[in-house]
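Sample intake sheet
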Amino acid sequence: MMFRRTIAAVALAAMPASAHAEAWMVKSSTLGCRDRETLVKLDAAGASQSLDALPAGCVVLDAGERLLDQPVMGGGFSDYVELERRDGSMLFVRSSAMVPDPGIGSVYDER
């Protein structure tokens, strides 16, 4: 019985920490794609900076756009991160195109 209470207390204590999302900003205009493999292929072809004909599921992210990084177990370091846009859509973005948000105002406030 004591073991169950201990487990329950640890689980409750861990919940608020797992609900925390980090805010990020786009450094300069870059592409984001719903499918990670599409973005990887664009980068490999050197076409990631071409904004003429975007593949389905890809959008141009403007400099300064704020995105949320939802906590993922065992995410680790990656060249591509999955982030949430203001409209709730999830996109893969090159991690080198992102910087931590300075924390001025709300995540979704316009600058």
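Comment: The helical segments are 2-18, 36-45. Residues 69 and 83 are 5 Å apart (CA to CA).
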